[in-house]
Amino acid sequence: MTGSSADGRLVDAYDLVILDLDGVIYLVDRPIETGVAAVSRLYAEGRPLTYATNNASRRAVEVATLLTSMGLSARPEEVLTSAGAAAEVLAERFPADSAVLVVGAEALRAEVRAAGLRPVARLEDAPVAVVQGYGPQVGWADLAEAALAVRAGAEWIATNTDRTLPTLRGPVPGNGSLVAVLRTALGREPDLVIGKPGPALFTTAARRTGAVRPLAVGDRLDTDIEGAVRAGMDSLLVLTGVSTPTELLHAPVHARPTYVAETLDGLFDPAGVAQLPGPTAMRPTGSTGWRVTREKAIGVLAGSGSRVEALRALCVEFWSAEGPLEVVRPADDEARATLEALGLLAASASE
């Protein structure tokens, strides 16, 4: 669904912007200034937007309240959470007042209750399903009850499988790490994963708004970007959260974004965003300012320009039919500074 022009603003090519939260607009509860400023501009221009988050520890109204405290005019109906989506699925599958064992935060229990089901915490309550979401207080006892319930025949639904969560101190274990505990104990996968990288949050957002050219924005290749690919949507990776330039260079085909920008400003600044090589690319995928010369698995970056343009030139080579480069070396001081700023110099300089 690419609709960008070679010289226009990225945002002008799409009729809906679907925004991840953690790592895009804030880190935990601390605003990312560039993210908040960009979203404020979306509101000021009357651009349709939806927030789609895997985080199951807050309800939509709580997310909207948090965003409002950051100066954004967010409304609960603009927020899609994996907790709310999971509760909707459970309500479709089981009769009203069915017992559901909840592993996660109070927000997930509240969503299950609002869907007409009965949250429980023990095997003895005969749960028909286990729903597992992130909660900072989840412990061994919660996971043990969940394992027992699944072994007894309860359906196992995970809100998401994010391995980590971004924080100011660095990534920490997310719900995917807790799901991995049960996966190890049970020797099986969840029956259903609701959130990203599944396409449901993206397709629901488009359906609710009637969008035909949505753009998904996120900071994670393995959830936000892969989910957009599965949903058949264009995507923008911002480098303010979890995924790094190194991970982008080594991204598998099913988790490669359409665009990359250092911050959410790339929605409005044509010079701050680069379109990456891919089957739907409309902008040139080679960089006019940067070039990478290649000899087998060794590449040399030369030229000048923005960091995202350099990253695009590197992606062209890493994603080529010849395979990833093993080493990238700078040709001069400007290339060295650019590689260092992208976190790519250490590996290159080790040769």
TrEMBL record:
The keyword Cytoplasm does not apply. GO terms for molecular function: hydrolase activity. SUPFAM superfamilies: HAD-like (SSF56784). The keyword Hydrolase applies. Residues 289-344 form the GCN5-related N-acetyltransferase-like domain. Keywords: Hydrolase. Pfam families: GNAT_like (PF18407), Hydrolase_6 (PF13344), Hydrolase_like (PF13242). PANTHER family: 4-NITROPHENYLPHOSPHATASE-RELATED, D-GLYCEROL 3-PHOSPHATE PHOSPHATASE. This is HAD-IIA family hydrolase.
